[in-house]
Amino acid sequence: MKRIISLFVMAFLSIFSIKGQELENSTLWKIDGNGLEKPSYLFGTIHITCDATLEDDVKKALDETTQLVLELDMDDPSMQTKMMQGMYMKDGKTLKDLVSEEDYKAIDSLFMDNMGMPVKLFENVKPFLLTAMLYPQLLDCPMQSFETELMNAAQAQGEEIKGLETIEEQLKVFDDIPYTDQAADLVRSAKDNMAHDKKMFSKMYKVYDEENITKMLDMMNDENTISVSQYQDLLLANRNKNWISKIGDYAKEQPTFFGVGAGHLAGENGVIKLLRKAGYTVTAVTE
């Protein structure tokens, strides 16, 4: 369960980004230069999908590296406890403090229809996490995850799994984004029974299959999602910048396979260009 919730968190965080100069169509990138003895690899994932089969080039990159680094250290035994501690709103806030009675009833109906449980059971949870709980309903298939497949591959090779940030750091983003804006997005999802969300996810999956990381960015400034369109620095840019030195440290320590949401790759503040600015050679693996 802890992995599933963490995947939902990462899914939300990686779906959205900012526009930037176009890069090659690839979700797999090679990192070398800047003093690295051996190359590392950067792979853009999609956290919730119908088919998380790893392509041959990804498997080859995994074979050429000796540790796996994801956004989170997802095999950390303390993650579940930390997740539970960070999922609730501060200052005793509840969902009823954030929305009208009418909107609360709409959200409750959404939860009853899709979860079979009243939202009252979770009304002190950060609104984002309430939205994330509904993500499996956006798929018309059993949920799969690239992170799970990458972890299985690393564990089969006896490799360590580490993280670029902590679950506390990820969840803090949703204290910095006003709860009212998160709740507004949840209300919008409730009022159209997630029709807009389903349309957006369907388009995102198609673009991901094309490995067009720049086109992914073009669809991300969605004005219908307030907590994304108005807080992109918190969701992506700041986190990307914090990751660069950590990526460098891991890569200098040993050849590393990095798996992060594909929304983090492109753009002026995307991981690819930030790594290049830091002196690394980052090239698309397109074969």
From TrEMBL:
> What Pfam families does UniProt report for this protein, alphabetically?
TraB_PrgY_gumN
Q: Which domain of life is it from?
A: Bacteria
What's the name of the protein?
TraB/GumN family protein
The upper taxonomy is: Bacteria, Pseudomonadati, Bacteroidota, Flavobacteriia, Flavobacteriales
